[in-house]
Amino acid sequence: MSVTQAAAYAAPAPKAPLERTTVPRRPVGEHDVLIEVKYAGICHSDIHQARDGWGEGIFPMVPGHEIAGVVAEVGPGVTKYAVGDRVGVGCFVDSCRECEYCLAGQEQHCVQGATGTYNALDRNGEPTYGGYSTHLVVDENYAVRIPEGLALDVAAPLLCAGITLYSPLKHWGAGPGKKVAIVGLGGLGHMGVKIAHALGAEVTVLSQSLRKREDGLRLGADHYYATADEATFKELKGRFDLILSTVSAPLGLDRYLSLLRVGGALVNVGAPEEPVELNLFSVIAGNRTLAGSMIGGIAETQEMLDFCAEHGLGSEIEVISGDQINEAYERVLSSDVRYRFVIDTSTI
Ligand code: NAP
Ligand code: ZN
Fold it and tell me: 221 and 104 share a domain?
């Protein structure tokens, strides 16, 4: 079975609604697998990019980098996967494979630039198209195995939201005895709560309001505060070892830095379209760290999936059909998502 054209939803131009179309898929090469995509999560990054929020994109754009599916065909040199295997693809589909970061399993930081799953040009200069599509061809080294214990629909969002929180939580030592705050209870944030709780940390959600408090506590948070309430910042001053911000809009970082203990770290993973302001005294006082983190490498993504399967951590999802993507984008933009929209690609 070879597929040269795949059905997909694409934004034809920046800010234009997504519409059904077809996109080319390359023939299955020596080390490629053809994936029949089953589910694709909607990440806020899809919306930033489809609307040129981070700069000029490549159009038509088929977003989607939270991809779960089944291997439908393998190239003759493929050793890791067989037809029928359940696999995932995240934010990148290639990298140089020889720089120090690729060799260290941090392909996302490839010196030549990792090839984005969409909104990118591949090593041959052809545009890449993402997971809002029925099929995808990818080098076996850039796919990961979805463990049996995880259903494909709840696994899809782990390929970006899951790894984006797992990686900094591990790196910054979230675990027993550590107080961790997650800012923003959206797609990334809700996975942060689940994973930090499973790692044994004491977890606090800092959300704009108390609207989603019951959910937050059910997902594993020990405490839940509204950031619209100024009293929150007074009460929590100096409280946390680690704060992860998943907020998609510019955030006043000084207020959040003041919530760290001496030596604590605020790790920002949210990627707003505008710069933010920072008073450097916020990090000088208390020897605090302000850091960032970008997704994770292939090996760590596999580790995260195995961890999530072991702890029964899927994403909380709302499954939608292809014709509901534009409406879902609006709902994500108004923080009205509980907690990830996932496209059933059989509806494309
Ligand atoms: P999301 O589902 O929309 O969640 C973002 C949450 O931030 C919202 O649910 C909301 O939570 C909060 N929020 C939104 N606007 C806010 C505002 N004006 N002030 C305060 N809080 C606000 O988005 P997502 O998919 O989780 O992605 C979040 C961000 O991370 C995006 O910018 C995305 O591009 C970025 N991202 C980064 C990486 C990385 O590697 N670093 C990977 C993936 C995504 P409450 O309603 O609880 O307040
Ligand atoms: Zn993403």
Answer: no
- At 2, the pLDDT band (50, 70, 90 cuts) reads low
Among 188, 215, 245, the mutation site with the greatest number of ligand 1 atoms within 8 A of its Cβ is 188
- The pLDDT of residue 145 is 98
What distance in Å separates the CA atoms of residue 180 and residue 171, rounded to the nearest whole number? 13
User: Domain check: are 17 and 138 in the same one?
Assistant: yes
Average pLDDT of every residue of the chain: 97
Q: Which domain holds residue 196?
A: 162-292
* 49 and 122 share one domain: yes
Of 212, 255, 253, which Cα lies nearest the Cα of 233? 255
- C-alpha 191 to ligand 1 mean position (Å): 12
The rounded distance, in Å, linking the Cα atoms of 149 and 83 is 19
Distance 185 CA to ligand 2 centre (A): 15
**For the segment 145-182, what is each residue's pLDDT rounded down to a tens digit?**
999 999 999 999 999 999 999 999 999 999 999 999 99
Both 233 and 257 in one domain: the answer is: yes
Inter-helix orientation angle 187-198/298-311, to 10° = 70
Of the three residues 254, 273, 292, the one that is the final residue of a domain is 292
Is-above-0.85 flag for pTM? yes
User: How many whole angstroms from 286 Cα to the centroid of ligand 2?
Assistant: 32
